[in-house]
Amino acid sequence: MNREPASGMPCAPRITAWRGYFRLAEQGTSARRELLAGLTTFATMAYIVVLNPAILAPTGIAQADLLWATVIATVVGTLLMGLWANLPIGLAPGMGSNVVFAQILVSKMGVSWQIGLAMVLCNGLLFFLLSMSRWRQRIIEGFPEPIKRGIGLSIGGFIAWLGLSNCGLIHSLQGGGITIVPFGQPGQLLALAGLLLAPLLMALRVPCALLMAIVAVTVAGLFVPGSDGTPLTATPLALFALPPFNPQMLFAFDLKGFFAHFSLLLPVTLYFLISEFFSGTATLFAVTRRAHLQAPGQDIPNARAAFSSDALSSMIGAAVGTTTVTAYVESIAGVEAGGRTGLTALVVAGLFAVSIQFWPLIHCVPAQASAVALVMVGFLMLKSIGDLDFTQAETAIPPLLMLLVTLVTTDLMVGMAMGCFIYTLIVLARRQWARLTVILIGLDGVFAFYLWVKDAL
């Protein structure tokens, strides 16, 4: 039974209650430490408020709608993780999935964003059902590791290419290939300066390096003219204001259109499911292990609640108008600051809820600033290339081929198909029958069917 302290403060039982709910004493932490951890995590992943709307803008959705969707999905997803799973992890629309959604699904394949949101919804539902069953562990064990690594590398390379393309430093040649654009425009020079600043700040371990680079390029853009002579960064009319809310974005997905085009969308659908499933799993394992909440060889604490929170967040994200929502590895920064419980996640969610008030400032961020962030995020995703075992053909060649084909063709689906095909051929040639899993054979069949349908169209 909670006792009121000598001071007679009536709120003491409530404070004791929420401390007990999050088990702060059991995890060896305090409210102050959790607050600091939440601030740290928010600072490291706040760039998504700027970057996600910028990435999804080619879909034709208004930036104000995208900002609302980003913030709502982030806040609700992070609250679910904090209150249900009691883990210090922030969730937001995933980098990589949003790029594929805008650049591959909508721009290249010509699919409407409403159909795309229906796909995200169905994937979230399937992921939720897997999270509530024992199939999650079986799928993790049966999926080829080189293909998982190749997906991460391919997405990282594609994101970096997109950032360089958006700021005008490179462009694709007709028929394939990439070339560097001759320098001379002030916007190009500003982007180049940002690309030099961002890694420098990261190398110096400056807190919030990526966010600071975005701010620095945005401020500099006030004094750099664009091609029309006006500054690249428009002067904000106010500091605080809420963006207009469009209720028509709620539940705007087109399920009928999704199932009508299911054969063409199946490979992309599998990509989203695979990406959400494995990136979420890897992040949850990494963060909980760094926080010493998970013993080696064991599952993460509150695993079912954690994975279910991840899956439900994607469904909520689709319902409000954004792409797959997933756990962010930037949560490790908050763990390093002492975060151990869901109270850290609650602080992150609260700060993201407040961030939408800065709509006038977010709206003024130029393409050069968001492009710098894209390139750096892509580079960070490429770091796993050092984990490849180059002494084994089946572990090194498929992921590298996936990366190379994706960069040359700027077609992620073709890159994934080539990676799966070459991995299967190597496994067959070396008679490694144990690696010839049902999942691998299924992927080969799906991608072969995709290439046939794509060529027929």
What does this structure look like?
Helix 3 crosses helix 17 (about 365-380), helix 9 packs antiparallel against helix 10 and helix 18 (about 395-410) packs antiparallel against helix 19 (about 410-430). Strand 2 and strand 3 (about 180) form a beta hairpin. It is globular, with a radius of gyration of 22 Å. The protein has helices spanning about 10-20, 30-45, 50-55, 65-85, 95-110, 115-130, 135-140, 145-165, 185-205, 210-220, 255-260, 260-290, 305-320, 330-335, 340-355, 360, 365-380, 395-410, 410-430, 440-455, and strands at about 90-95, 170, 180, 325. The protein has one domain. The strands form two sheets. Strands 1-4 form a two-stranded antiparallel sheet. Strands 2-3 form a two-stranded antiparallel ribbon. The longest helix is centred in the middle third of the chain and has 29 residues, at about 260-290. Helix content is about 65%, strand content about 5%. The chain has about 450 residues and is mainly α.
Summary of the model, kept short:
With 457 residues, the protein is mainly α. Helix content is 65%, strand content 3%.
Beginning-to-end CA distance, first to last residue: 69 Å
Poorly predicted spans? 1-9
Number of domains: 1
Q: What is the number of beta strands?
A: 4
Q: How many whole angstroms does the radius of gyration measure?
A: 22 Å
Q: What do the pLDDT scores average to? A: 83
Q: Helix and strand string, N-terminal first? A: HHHHEHHHHEEHHHHHEHHHHHHH
DSSP strand (E) fraction? under 5%
Give the % helix: 55-70%
Helix count from the secondary structure assignment: 20
Please identify the structural class as seen in this structure. Answer: mainly alpha
Q: Give a quick account of the main beta sheet: strands, pairing sense, barrel closure.
A: 2 strands, antiparallel
Rough outline: globular
Going across the biggest sheet, name each strand in turn. 1-4
